[in-house]
């Protein structure tokens, strides 16, 4: 195994120790950057040094944090979740460092001629500090920092709740009518002879696409859309309130403008304008497509509805494909076995990007993960590719993440 490939074999104790060590290393490098005098400052010893220090810090903590999302070990997931919270809250501290901000500003004041990329990096880095409250009066900066840390904790808890959902619905054989045998055959059966359908995407989406029972689809959709409602609705309300406060303190009219200020759209007014113009152009076509599906629904049910309910659109979309376009995904997939699809996918990406995906024995988070070296045309390793095709049990976070899980990692520098 390549010594440069990332390692995923952690104990909970090892993960718990990583944040403190990584922070200590980064703090030492930040101290050097902060100590650079204005006269001796350069792009390399301020901005580039900061960028490299933060990148190395990310490299040290990112893989352990990934374990919160993919590990099937509850203790490892818990340690990784706690590590992610520490790292995320420390990142707020990082971008509220007055000494580092001052050092970067001393260099910026020299107004050296920079290339387009270097100039954008300087602009973006200074803005990241300002969006964390730097440049405000100390009282406001302290308040922003406190609110950002609270927001980080809420957002991580919200995601954790979704990842660890274990909700499911028990369906009768009648309610499963329309589902293919390879779907029903893998479902767990209850003592009462019913079939257990989980909130995992490989269960949920095929069910909504194919189940003929309108009531069963309605039941499953309600369960799916209300995952964690008892806890997450309150968390979302708290997060929205915090975001509003943060944006106002920093000087933005709302959190959308705060987030969009350095993105292509620039502000929420541009986004809303774009959406309204797009909606106006799509409305006529959308109504036509809705009538098609409503007609199909009424033909099947003998009703006279003019619209579709939220639990119906996937089913009638799928039915339309079958009846009007003879496009049946269940039949099509018979011609695309897994190994053929993977081989074809790698062949296409390989030709487009000028690379090769070579199977490799690498450390991974589960024995079923497929691992590859991504090689350049000259045979050197460009990256490592991890392909996890099957979601773990619901208790191991499948419900809150899409699957297959794909991870790409660049080789570590010696």
Give the helix/strand layout.
Layout: H1 12-34, H2 44-70, H3 74-94, H4 98-108, H5 116-130, H6 138-163, E1 168-171, H7 181-184, E2 188-189, E3 195-198, H8 201-210, H9 214-225, H10 229-250, H11 255-260, H12 268-301, H13 313-325, H14 329-332, H15 338-353, E4 356-359, E5 370-375, E6 381-388, E7 405-409
Antiparallel strand pairs: 1-3, 2-3, 4-5, 5-6, 6-7
Helix pairs in contact: 1-2, 1-3, 1-4, 2-3, 3-6, 6-10, 8-13, 12-13
State which percent range the strand residues make up: 5-15%
Give the overall average pLDDT: 92
- Give the structural class: alpha+beta
**CATH level-two architecture of the largest domain:** Up-down Bundle
Spans of 5+ residues with little confidence (pLDDT < 50)?
Answer: 394-401
End-to-end Cα distance, whole Å, is 15 Å
Biggest β-sheet strands, sense, barrel: 4 strands, antiparallel
Enumerate how many helices there are, as a single number: 15
- Report the strand count: 7
- The domain tally reads 4
Q: Whole-number radius of gyration? A: 26 Å
Q: Which sequence of SSEs, written as H and E, runs from N to C?
A: HHHHHHEHEEHHHHHHHHEEEE
């Amino acid at each position: 195994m390549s010594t440069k490939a990332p390692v995923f074999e952690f104990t909970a104790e090892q993960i718990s120790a990583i944040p403190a060590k990584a922070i200590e290393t980064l703090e030492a490098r930040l101290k050097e950057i902060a100590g650079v005098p204005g006269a001796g400052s350069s792009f390399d010893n301020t901005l580039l040094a900061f960028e490299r220090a933060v990148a190395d810090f990310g490299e040290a903590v990112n893989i352990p944090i990934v374990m919160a999302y993919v590990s099937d070990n509850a203790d490892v997931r818990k340690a990784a979740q706690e590590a992610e919270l520490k790292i995320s809250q420390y990142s707020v501290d990082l971008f509220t460092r007055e000494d580092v901000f001052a050092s970067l500003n001393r260099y910026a004041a020299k107004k050296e001629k920079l290339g387009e990329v270097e100039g954008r990096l300087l602009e973006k880095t200074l803005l990241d500090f300002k969006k964390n409250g730097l440049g405000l009066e100390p009282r406001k900066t302290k308040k922003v920092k406190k609110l950002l840390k609270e927001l980080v904790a809420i957002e991580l808890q919200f995601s954790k709740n979704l990842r660890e959902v274990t909700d499911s619905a028990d369906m009768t054989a009648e309610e499963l009518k329309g589902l293919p045998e390879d779907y029903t055959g893998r479902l767990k059966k209850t003592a009462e002879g019913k079939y257990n359908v989980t909130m995992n995407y490989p269960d949920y989406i095929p069910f909504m696409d194919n189940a003929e029972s309108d009531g069963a689809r309605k039941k499953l959709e309600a369960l799916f859309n209300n995952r964690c409602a008892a806890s997450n609705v309150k968390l979302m309300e708290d997060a929205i309130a915090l975001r509003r406060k943060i944006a106002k303190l920093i000087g933005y009219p709302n959190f959308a403008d705060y987030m969009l200020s350095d993105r292509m759209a620039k502000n929420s007014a541009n986004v809303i304008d774009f959406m309204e113009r797009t909606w106006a152009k799509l409305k006529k076509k959308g109504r036509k497509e809705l009538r098609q599906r409503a007609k199909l629904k009424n033909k099947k049910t003998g009703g006279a509805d003019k619209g579709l309910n939220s639990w119906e659109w996937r089913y009638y979309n799928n039915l339309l494909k079958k009846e009007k376009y003879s496009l049946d995904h269940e039949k099509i997939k018979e011609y695309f076995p897994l190994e053929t699809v993977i081989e074809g996918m790698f062949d296409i990406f390989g030709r487009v990007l000028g690379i090769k995906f070579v199977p490799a024995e690498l450390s991974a988070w589960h024995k079923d993960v497929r691992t590859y070296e991504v090689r350049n045309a000259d045979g050197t390793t460009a990256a490592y590719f991890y392909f996890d095709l099957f979601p773990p049990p619901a208790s191991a976070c499948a419900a809150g993440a899409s699957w297959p899980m794909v991870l790409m990692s660049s080789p570590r520098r010696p």
